[in-house]
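cache lookup: miss for this entity combination. No prior model stored, computing from scratch. Input as submitted by user K.M.:
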Amino acid sequence: MVQTKPTLSADDWADAALDAMVDGGLDGVAVEPLARKLGVTKGSFYWHFANRDALIRASLERWASRETEQIIERAKGVRQPRKRIQTVFKAANGSEREGHLYLALAAASRDPRVADFVHKVSQRRLDFLAECYRALGLTARDARKWATFAYSTFLGTLQLRRDNPSALPPGPVFNEYLRLLIETLIPRPGEQPPAAAEQAA
Amino acid sequence: MVQTKPTLSADDWADAALDAMVDGGLDGVAVEPLARKLGVTKGSFYWHFANRDALIRASLERWASRETEQIIERAKGVRQPRKRIQTVFKAANGSEREGHLYLALAAASRDPRVADFVHKVSQRRLDFLAECYRALGLTARDARKWATFAYSTFLGTLQLRRDNPSALPPGPVFNEYLRLLIETLIPRPGEQPPAAAEQAA
DNA sequence: GTTTTGCCATACTTTCCCGTATGGATGCGC
DNA sequence: GCGCATCCATACGGGAAAGTATGGCAAAAC
């Protein structure tokens, strides 16, 4: 498939495994098909890894560290609380592949190896979101509720985009939809909530 | 496993297949393991079904019809628009197994057989929800947006319950959380949205 | 220039499951 | 009580992928 590199590295195998998870979930990670896709044979694989289990663990490790760092980097720069949350939302809906990968791994979360990583990543995201909501002036308790609310909505939207894209508002209306989400999911403590304006339109 | 019935029916196999999907997704539906769980052999299976594909299709058919009818039955009785939507929410979060099953099938929605059914079920639910929102006095356009919003939140909450239960508010706070969802996701056209009261608390 | 080392190919064996072929048992029609 | 349909067991062949064992081959080491 790709002959740019003379030899493969363990990370190449891990990335290929993550690609395979997007399509086939955990069962999609099969050594021989991966080898065919990489243009080599199993001999290469068993040089870099002890077995299939080691590949899966390495891939998950790679995924988790990448996911927890990206969340921070994209939003930590924005200082204004409302803008920061909006940035998180935009970034979250940005990469389609990452979204599919998350859903694929979450679906395999019955596997004990996967469960730990999915738990860790979602926990990291929720904590960061709750922190953002606290910066808005909410109590810790309310911030947690709103963070969970927003994250759930994000996860659900992700799933709809994958399983029933036609259900989401088409083209221009989709932007209205996103604005509705953002306005509703970022309360203005002390001010009048924005939903009223939306319904007046 | 179960010796209550002298012989098995095709529906027994279909139900067992749905149970297997909850745990192992589509790949979890394997003829020989199912036979072992039912206390019979493959000979029984291939009497009732032509092959594994037929079993999968029959199971999906059974699931889809059940899902689309349950949604109607539980909520059609409630006439008041707000109460009706609340009923839908409560019912949706009711059966844990049905939620897991939906997520398992959605995860397998890359399979063309599954895709059609998942699409159909989610579409049916969204249409009904949009209808409920229209009864609130929203325009068709706004009703669709709010229905999508609410359904996404429902899906995401379902996923959190499965993959990271500890992330959801514990015990008593969870009820507050559900109230927040309901109050926020059911706008009051013309009146002041309820989020203000929530934040004042 | 020979020897090692890194990376991979080839050729097995084993396991698990699908699908088929065929025979056996039980119960009903008549 | 004979025959037939229903429902299931047993035995077999085949494919796909995990893991092992071993040989090959180029580049670096010396």
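stored under new cache key. Confidence is low (pLDDT under 50) at residues 192-201 of chain A.
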